[in-house]
Design a protein that fits this description.
The protein is built from three helices and ten strands. The protein is of the alpha+beta class. The protein has a domain of 115 residues. A seven-stranded antiparallel β-sheet has the order 4-5-6-7-10-9-8. Strands 1-2-3 form a three-stranded antiparallel β-sheet, with no helix packed on it. Strand 1 and strand 2 form a beta hairpin. About 3% of the residues have low confidence.
Amino acid sequence: MQSDKASGAFICTHCGTLEEQPILIRDIEIGALSDRQCPVCTTPLARAHLDGNALLYCRRCNGMLIPIESFVLVIEAARSRENRSGVSLPRRQNPGERVLPCPECGQPMLSHFYSGPGNLVIDTCERCCVNWLDPGELRRIARAPQGRVWIPPPPLETPDPGDDET
């Protein structure tokens, strides 16, 4: 999907489908370009803010590089703008399916399961203390139901046939 500034919508580059741009994207204050490149589409990342929290934003693919120190604050700002859907969609990727270079240092980022709600894989550079979110992932985290994590039931307590307590 690409953002079309004129219509305020996302346009699928494959089929041409239009989708309304989320309020979240419209609320990101986008500033000047930085000297960092998007790890996905290699265009310059723009300096941006969401509720005063600094991040780098890709104007082409809508990915975001967020400092770990403000990651939770950015998620809370996104949640304040989204309705919780009550559904966590299946993941689109698994850790290790791709390796992205960190926009800060150029070293490979660690691809891992996000430990919060949203059922997704994010990319982290522990060296630079940044997280990369692909397009739609911040919104996916913000819309995910919180506290509804599936916990497997405890094992059934059936006696072992070899245990005789007589």
